């Protein structure tokens, strides 16, 4: 341990109010997103960008390491003569004598700013220490110090610091948990504004003026983090963003609801579906869907290619894909996801994978779908579990992670085939 004569010990957890600090960090996050180049923002995956900003602004509460404390002793000038000490002269005078100081270094990890912030819970008895880049420093001084006395003083100081950090952790948990939603909302709001502004200028009929891209600005709190993988900033082009047709969320939800209602149809008429194949099942779904949505000249919104696809096309490209498959195992299921992701699609394509199971252990099939989907190379996140047998996931396109595809997987328990019995001749 390095020797030093003294270090200034300030009151910890005393300089900044938690609510004001949190608000300032959230404002910096919003300002960073607002400062992004517009085309880059529009060309970047919303979920990836939101994850990046949530990671950048996450507050890493300090963690002290009492088991790694180091200490050293030195001679120090100690002021004596106060009331109740053996050097008190009865007249209120004080003087200094040579005593002993035990210098303590308490290592920590995390953001050193945390030692300045005042938690929302406090006891008005703030501990004191000097905050270095990787440890807290404080000294125990006195005349005729004993090991027991020093140990009690150190334990008391450590206990007080630990208590304040626990209070700060409770405050930080809510802040950190809300960062992803804040980043997502800010990105989506700016996306909407950018697209609306461009539609406004395009509607004027004038040529769009080309502007040099704005410089990137990323402001984040100064953080000393624990060693962990960094969330890289998503890469995206600054080329002019070209809006593409997309299926609205309301229509997507309505489509999924129609598909989900087919479960009741199968349950009410099991005999009609006992011998049915994938192509015939697809036709049943097409009839239901086209009964709810009207199309163009053909009168049909939904059509198909191949044997199992249910499609909505705009300008020859898919904005909705439905894939009907019988469950034959985890490997085939993941290959079905590959197939859906391989379709040439617009940005924000939406899809549904309808898995029909004649497996007696339908619960086991549901568990396999739930556990194996996150293993797919292009999986990004579970958006929500819609029911016991339905999930909506977000995937990145296989060739461009900034193109995101929403895939809702719905599992159907189809009545098992009844194999005909062959009666022996002569009976």
UniProtKB/TrEMBL annotation:
Region described as Disordered: spans on this chain: 217-247
Protein name in UniProt: Restriction endonuclease
């Amino acid at each position: 341990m390095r020797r030093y004569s003294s270090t200034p010990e300030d009151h910890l957890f005393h300089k900044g109010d938690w609510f004001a600090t949190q608000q300032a960090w959230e404002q910096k996050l919003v300002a960073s997103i607002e400062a992004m180049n517009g085309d880059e923002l529009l060309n970047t995956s919303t979920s990836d960008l939101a994850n990046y900003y949530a990671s950048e602004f996450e507050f890493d509460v300090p963690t002290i390491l009492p088991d790694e404390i180091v200490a050293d002793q030195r001679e120090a000038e100690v002021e004596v003569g106060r009331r109740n000490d053996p050097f008190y002269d009865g007249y209120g005078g004080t003087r200094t004598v040579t005593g002993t100081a035990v210098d303590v270094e308490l290592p920590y990890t995390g953001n050193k700013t945390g030692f300045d912030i005042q938690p929302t819970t406090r006891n008005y008895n703030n501990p004191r220490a000097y905050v270095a880049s990787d440890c807290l420093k404080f000294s125990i001084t006195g005349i005729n110090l004993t090991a027991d006395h020093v140990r009690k003083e150190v334990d008391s100081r450590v206990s007080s610091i630990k208590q304040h950090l626990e209070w700060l952790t409770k405050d930080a948990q809510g802040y950190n948990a809300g960062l992803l939603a804040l980043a997502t909302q800010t990105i989506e709001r700016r996306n909407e504004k950018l697209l609306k502004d461009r539609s406004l200028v395009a509607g004027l009929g004038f040529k769009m003026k080309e502007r040099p891209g704005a410089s990137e600005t990323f402001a984040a709190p100064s953080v000393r983090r624990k060693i962990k993988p960094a969330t890289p900033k998503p890469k995206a082009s600054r080329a002019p963003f070209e809006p593409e047709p997309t299926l609205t969320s309301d229509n997507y939800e309505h489509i999924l609801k129609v598909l989900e209602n087919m479960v009741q149809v199968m349950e009410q008429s099991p005999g009609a579906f006992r011998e049915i194949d994938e192509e015939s099942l697809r036709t049943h779904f097409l009839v239901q869907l086209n009964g709810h949505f009207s199309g163009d000249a053909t009168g049909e919104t939904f059509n198909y290619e191949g044997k199992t696809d249910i499609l909505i096309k705009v300008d020859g490209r898919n904005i909705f894909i439905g894939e009907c498959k019988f469950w034959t195992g985890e490997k085939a299921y993941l290959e079905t996801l590959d197939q859906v992701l391989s379709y040439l699609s617009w940005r924000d394509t939406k899809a549904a994978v309808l898995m029909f199971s004649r497996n007696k252990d339908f619960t086991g099939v549901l568990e396999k779908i739930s556990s194996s989907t996150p293993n797919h190379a292009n999986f990004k996140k579970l958006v929500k579990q819609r029911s016991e047998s339905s999930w909506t996931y977000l995937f990145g396109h296989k060739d461009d992670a900034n193109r995101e595809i929403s895939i809702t997987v719905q599992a159907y328990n189809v009545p098992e085939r009844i194999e005909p019995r062959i009666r022996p001749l002569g009976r």
